Amino acid sequence: MNFYPQTRPRHLVLVLGDQLNQDSAAFDGFDPARDAVWMAEVAEESTRVWSHQARIAMFLSAMRHFRDALQGQGLTVHYRQLNDPANSGSFLGEVTATTSRLSPQRLIWVEPGEWRVQRCLESTARALGVDFEVRPDRHFFCSREEFARHARGRKQLRMEFFYRALRRQQRVLMDADEPAGGAWNFDAQNRESFGKEGPPDAETPLAFNPDAPTREVLALVKDRFAKHSGSLARFDWPVSPQQARAALDDFVAHRLPHFGRYQDAMWTGHDASQPTAALRQHAYLHHSRLSAAMNLKLLNPRDAVSAAEKAYREGRAPLASVEGFIRQILGWREYVRGIYWQFMPRYLDRNELKATQPLPACYWTGETDMNCLRHVVGQTLEFGYAHHIQRLMVTGLFALLLGVKPQAVHEWYLAMYVDAVEWVELPNTLGMSQHADGGLMASKPYMASGKYIQRMSNYCAGCRYDPAQRTDPKACPFTTLYWDLLLRHETLLAQNPRTVMQARNAARLTPAQRLQITDHAAGLRAAIAAAT
C-alpha cells in the first residue's frame, strides 16, 4: 500500500531502512497535523552489493511493519514499495520525486549509518534547494563527537580503553567505582570449545513465523531477486520492536548463562535435509541472534545491556557470560561505529597487506572440499547468519591467508548477513578481520592455522585435509596459507609485539621448508583462482 496525501508538509521526516525506532530524534517535535514521513524500498540497495535474499527480506519486512505502526498512530507516511510501477529503483530518485512533488519546508533525518547515504542526502537536498536538518542518532551510547574527543591526541585507538571509559560513564556492571567482580573482562573464561561431547543442550532461539506482511515480502523477494544468493525457506527473524523484545527476553532466559563460556566455539551437524529445529540449534548455539534487530533499531542496545546486567544481579547468569555479551554491545559495537565515522571515506580504500586475490567462488556457493568453509558458508546461505568467530576465524581468516582484496571481502560480508549495515560491517572486516588498516582498529592480524579451527570446532572431523600438515598432499589449506602469510609479511609481523613469536617460528624454517611452503601456497592460489 502506498499512501500519498497531497497536503504540503511543514517537515518531511526521512526514515531509512536501518532507522526503525519511534524514539528517534527525527520525531522530536513531530506534529501529525503538519508533518509527514518518507520511506522507500529501492532495488539499488539490494543490488549495489549482491544481497542475500534473507537480508533483503529482513529490511523490507521490518520497514513495512514500521510503516504500518506509524500509520496506525495517525501519522502520514509517504511510502514507496519496491513493486510500485512508479518506483525509480534508486534512493536518490525516490527522495527527489517525493520532495519535488510535496515541496516540504524542510527535510529532517537522523545521521545515516553509511557515509555514502549521508553525502547523497545532503547533496540531494542542496540540489533541490530545500532546507534540511540532520539530527544526532540517540540509539548509540556514544555520539560521533564523543568518539572524536576520545580519539583526539591518542597515538593508538584500542577498544579496551574505550570500553572501560564507557562502562564508567554509563555505570554498567560497576560496583561503586570498580568493575563488577574486580576485573574488566573475563576472556580467560570465555574461550572454551565444546569438546568431543558437543555443545550442551540449549533451547533454540524463539522463531517468528512470517505474518501476512512478511509473507508478502518473501514472495516479492523470491520473485524479484531469484538469482541472488541465499534461501528464504527458514526465514523467522524478528521484524518488529515487539518481536525483538521477545527475542531478547528469550536469549537472557535460555542462552545467556552459557553464552560467555562458549561464545568462541563452533559446531556443526549442518545438513540441509535436517529438520529446521536441528539446523537452528547448530547455527545459533548459545548466541543471541539480536544483532539484526539492534542494527535496524528494532531493539535499543540499552535494553539489551540492562536485561543482561539484571540477569547477573539476580543470579540468573554468571558474570563472565554477562560481561562477554555486554562487551560486544557496549564495547565492540560502539567502538567500530566510532572508527567508521572517524576515518571514512578513506578508510574504505585501505589495504595495508597489499592483498589482490579475487574472492573465491565458493563464498557464494559453499562448494568446497574444506569442511569448515563449506559448513560456515552453507549455514550463511541457509540463514543469512554466522556467529562472530565463524565470520572472523573461518571465512575471514581464509580470505586473509589467501590474500583476497579486502574490499571484495567487505562487499561479501555486507551482502550476505541479515545484520549487515556498513558502519558496523566495514571496520570489522577491513580492520579486525583483514588487518587492511594496518592496526588502526585492532593491535594484530587475527591469523591462525587450521589447528585453531580443529581446537574450537568439530569441522575437521572427516575432512580430507590434516590441519597439522603444511605441505603434505593432505595439508590443510588454512595451515599452508598461514605459514605462507608469515613468510610474506615476516618483517612486518616481527615488529609487532603481539605477533613477534609467530614471526620467530617462521624465522626457524630452513630455505628448503620455505620454498616448499611458498610453492604449495602458489598451487593452492592457482587452483582456487581457476575455479573462481
CATH homologous superfamily grouping of the largest domain: DNA Cyclobutane Dipyrimidine Photolyase, subunit A, domain 3
SSE order: EEHHEHEHEHHEEHHHHHHHHHHHHHHHHH
Give the overall shape.
globular
DSSP, total strands: 7
State the low-pLDDT regions, or none: 1-5
- Beta-strand content bin: 5-15%
The whole-number mean of residue pLDDT values reads: 95
Radius of gyration: 24 Å
Physical arrangement of strands within the biggest beta sheet:
3-2-1-4-5
Helix proportion = 40-55%
User: What is the end-to-end distance?
Assistant: 42 Å
Number of helices: 23
- Total tally of structural domains: 3
Description:
This protein has helices at 44-47, 53-72, 91-102, 115-128, 144-151, 159-170, 212-224, 241-254, 256-259, 276-284, 291-295, 301-313, 319-343, 362-365, 371-383, 388-402, 406-416, 422-433, 450-456, 477-488, 490-494, 500-507, 511-530, and strands spanning 11-14, 36-40, 77-80, 106-110, 131-135, 174-175, 178-179. It contains 23 helices and seven strands. Helices cover 49% and strands 5% of the residues. The strands form two sheets. A five-stranded parallel β-sheet has the order 3-2-1-4-5, sandwiched between helices. A hairpin with a 2-residue loop joins strand 6 and strand 7 (178-179). It folds into three domains: 11-135, Rossmann fold (3-Layer(aba) Sandwich), CATH 3.40.50.620; 144-205 and 255-342, Serine Threonine Protein Phosphatase 5, Tetratricopeptide repeat; 362-530, DNA Cyclobutane Dipyrimidine Photolyase, subunit A, domain 3, CATH 1.10.579.10. With 532 residues, the chain is mostly helical.
